[in-house]
Inverse folding.
């Protein structure tokens, strides 16, 4: 007997200032004006998306001591923006990226619980970590964490936040909205761990959805295990069908040892899209977008993050350098390269030789997310296939333009997913946990 068709989950990522955003396009508007956030959020809600997702940057990126030109408009604080969006949306989930390295659990739990009350149960927290001293220079303690300690602190952070959220009983407030508190329904908290030693009483009543949704992004073995123990949603980088299936099976397979069921963790890779009336038109549009996203300077800057050298003398439309990476500096351009840089450089060199790629062409290829390219019907069919074949539970869409980049998808692809019976025609619940099919957050 065949299983019922799975429902597709969709979320919208506000692209912000990075090399995904084609900020020089005439259609690109402000990255910080509230009107831009409002437009994209309302478009996502019109499309019945699960949530709207904001990234975070705790330091402006630099290249050879100069601010990277893609960061000059600034990076606003997520929860402030989402609190404002709660007033102009009704059902859309509101997800903030908040760093577990440079914040304190009590204050983050308090701010998220407040957003959850303001939005009537739509708050989410994307937990990220940082181990580099470059970002740490903006904070009193600096980049004190070893890379291996990122997840130990993050796991304690989330456990403590959940203890705070759970310290108020659901019926702690008596009466019909009169706001009176039953003191006996507020439990004191006391937490002692490797990173935190705190005690007291939490100040915010229990979240309307039990607990805010927890999102996590990580591909390392530590990150996967952290997600299996802790997260409600994992923001995956795996885009191809085969890679997606392998990642999906691996992470879902880890849940049982923590007493969790497969449906209790949603796997949502990031994805871009390019639509056209024909496949050829869509392919041409996608290629043009990628060349806008990865200009000559961006290609060289990205290469420098891996090689750890000044590569400005190299032609971005020429071959890769014949020198090895300089491993003496762990940070280049404000980012810590992932993994073994020597091995990564060798992998890139082999790929460039196999496909005869220039530096810019290589960077375009290796930095591309999963991208759905084609007619609206073809894109809807492919998204449906990924979900039905357990390569993903849905996707977090990253448009290349702010704020109108999602409009075409909502107008042309969402109706086709609805016709297939794999995407909601309207919201059936009021909270983000309802949208994700997670059930209420509880002990």
């Amino acid at each position: 007997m065949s299983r019922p068709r799975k429902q597709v989950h969709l979320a919208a990522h506000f692209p912000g200032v990075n090399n995904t955003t084609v900020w020089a396009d005439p259609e690109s508007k402000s990255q910080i004006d509230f009107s831009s956030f409002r437009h994209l959020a309302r478009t996502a809600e019109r499309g019945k998306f699960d949530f709207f997702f904001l990234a975070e940057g705790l330091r402006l990126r630099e290249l050879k001591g100069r601010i990277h030109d893609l960061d000059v408009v600034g990076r606003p604080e997520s929860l402030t923006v989402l609190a404002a969006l709660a007033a102009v949306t009704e059902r859309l989930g509101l997800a903030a990226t908040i760093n577990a390295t440079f914040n304190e659990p009590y204050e983050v739990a308090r701010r998220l619980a407040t957003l959850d009350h303001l939005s009537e149960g739509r708050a989410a927290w994307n937990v990220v970590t940082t181990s580099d001293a470059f970002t740490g220079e903006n904070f009193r303690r600096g980049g004190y964490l070893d890379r291996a300690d990122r997840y130990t602190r993050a796991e304690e952070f989330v456990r403590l936040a959940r203890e705070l959220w759970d310290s108020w009983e659901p019926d702690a407030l008596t009466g019909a909205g009169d706001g009176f508190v039953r003191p006996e329904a507020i439990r004191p908290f006391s937490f002692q761990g490797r990173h935190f030693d705190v005690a007291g009483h939490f100040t915010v009543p229990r979240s309307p959805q039990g607990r805010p949704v927890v999102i996590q992004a990580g591909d390392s073995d530590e990150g996967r295990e952290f997600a299996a123990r802790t997260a409600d949603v994992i923001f995956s980088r795996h885009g191809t069908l085969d890679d997606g299936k392998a990642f999906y099976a691996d992470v879902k397979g880890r849940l049982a040892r923590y007493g969790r069921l497969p449906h209790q963790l949603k796997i949502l890779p990031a994805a871009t899209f390019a639509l056209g009336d024909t496949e050829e038109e869509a392919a041409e549009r996608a290629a043009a977008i990628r060349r806008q996203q990865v200009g000559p300077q961006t290609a060289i800057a990205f290469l420098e993050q891996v090689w750890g050298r000044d590569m400005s003398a190299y032609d971005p439309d020429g071959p890769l350098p014949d020198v090895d990476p300089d491993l003496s500096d762990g940070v280049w351009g404000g980012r810590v390269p992932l993994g073994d840089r020597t091995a990564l450089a060798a992998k890139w060199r082999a790929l460039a030789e196999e496909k005869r790629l220039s530096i810019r062409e290589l960077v375009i290829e290796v930095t591309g997310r999963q991208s759905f390219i084609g007619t609206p019907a073809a894109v809807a069919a492919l998204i449906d296939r990924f979900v039905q074949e357990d390569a993903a539970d849905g996707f977090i869409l990253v448009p290349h333009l702010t704020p109108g980049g999602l409009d075409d998808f909502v107008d042309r692809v969402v109706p086709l997913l609805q016709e297939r019976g794999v995407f909601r025609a309207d919201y059936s619940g009021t909270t983000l946990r309802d949208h994700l099919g997670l059930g209420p957050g509880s002990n």
